[in-house]
Amino acid sequence: MGKIGIYGSSFDPVTNVHLWTASTVAHRCKLDKVIFLPCSSKRRDKQLHIDDSHRWKMLELAIENNPKFTADEYEMKEEAWNIYTYNTLRHFKAVFPNDDVYFIMGADLLVDIGKGKWAKGEELIAENKFIVMARDGIDMLKAISHSPILRNNDDGSTFHLLDKGLAMEISSTYIREELAMGGEPRYLLPDACYRYIKENKLYK
């Protein structure tokens, strides 16, 4: 039985922090594979800034030299009405029936689920396992204990909390803003992705 982490994000663009986070989580949690899952541009709660084909190509470039990393277009290809994290994890558990599948997320998302902001949030927590990364200013244990959804579905193995050294905050938004204003974020993202952005004049 293996251990697989599902790492969802917009990756708009993918950054070195995304890669460092995935590598650190894989190391600490003994994951055999991390699946990078770019979100769908069809989601009403996401405003993406470039075409899906560019996000996908940069993700491929970013992870091509790490055998533990792979990318999956599942959510990109799904119809908008069916894009829920609950459905996504059900899909990957069917693909990997003999493995433990974990959803990798930040503590800010844990708080939102606990407040009932996610569709099928209670079923999501009840039926899945999560690796939760620290975010500045969020006490993850309090977030769990203060939420009936979280605390009543925690059997002791539901949440793997990573609260040491995983709160780096360099974001895709920062990189996009720098590129739009003529800044130089070169060393915040993989070299191949930086070259791809320049060659295709993205985020201007």
Automatic annotation (TrEMBL):
Annotated Cytidyltransferase-like domain residues: 6-177
Pathway: Cofactor biosynthesis; NAD(+) biosynthesis; deamido-NAD(+) from nicotinate D-ribonucleotide: step 1/1
Signal sequence annotation: none
Keyword check for ATP-binding: yes
Record carries keyword Cell inner membrane: no
Catalytic activity: nicotinate beta-D-ribonucleotide + ATP + H(+) = deamido-NAD(+) + diphosphate
EC number: 2.7.7.18
Gene Ontology biological process terms in this record: NAD+ biosynthetic process
Annotated InterPro entries: Cyt_trans-like, NadD/NMNAT, Rossmann-like_a/b/a_fold
Protein name: Probable nicotinate-nucleotide adenylyltransferase
Lineage: Bacteria, Bacillati, Bacillota, Bacilli, Bacillales
